[in-house]
Amino acid sequence: LNTDGAAGITLTGNNFTFNNTTTTTAGGPVTINNSGTLTLSANGDMNLSGAFNQTGTGAVNTAADITTSNDNITFNSPVNLTGPANWSTQSVPGAGVITNNGTINGAHTLNMNAGSLGQVVINGEIGGVTRPTNITFHGDIIDQNAPVHASGTISYNSTLNLSADIDTTGADITFNSDIFRDGVNNVTVSAAGTGTGNITVN
Question: What gap in Å lies between CA 121 and CA 125, rounded to an integer?
Answer without folding.
Answer: 11
